[in-house]
Amino acid sequence: MPLSPLDIHNKEFTRGFRGYAEDEVNEFLDQIIKDYEIILREKKELEEKVKSMSEQMSRYNTLEETLQKSIVVAQEAAEEVRRNSQQESKLIIKEAEKNADRIVNDALGKARKIAIEIDELKKQSKVFRNRFKMLVEAQLDLLNTDDWDHLMEYDVSLTNIQNHHRNEDEDGFEVSKDELSNLL
């Protein structure tokens, strides 16, 4: 057990012949007691500081561990968010590709249908053109015949028509003047 200032103070030395000077020894012991008390006080203060710093260090260590755990959790959460984002973006891209394929296929189908309709219209227009050409040629042939010239030379007068119809009236067919005007 270490000495206390009280132990030093209460220590009694035996006196010998030609021993040390008692006043000097007592003075020196008093100085040792004071210095020893200072050292003990400083030791106690340092122990309290060490204890306080140990507690503070413990709190800091706990805080550091908590921060490290938080960082790990944040990193894991960030990684999870990144993975989820990648999966979601892949799904979005896949869906967009499906939609694009569907749109392209629909457009190709419509284009094929339109191409078929165009071909059909071309065929119909060719048939119509040929028929119309034949009709026009037939009409031109009709116009180019001499029948028109004979028709233009034919004189149709009201008297001739009435006589012609009188003959038909006898047969039971009668034409009024209004109908006759409409015929002309």
UniProtKB/TrEMBL annotation:
Organism: Lysinibacillus antri
Localization in the cell: Cytoplasm
GO cellular component annotations of the record: cytoplasm
Official protein name in the record: DivIVA domain-containing protein
An annotated GO BP: cell division
Coiled coil: 29-63
InterPro entries associated with the record: DivIVA_domain, DivIVA_fam
UniProt cross-references to Gene3D superfamilies, sorted A to Z: 6.10.250.660
Domain of life (superkingdom): Bacteria
Family: Belongs to the DivIVA family.
Keywords: Cell cycle, Cell division, Coiled coil, Cytoplasm
Keyword Coiled coil among record annotations: yes
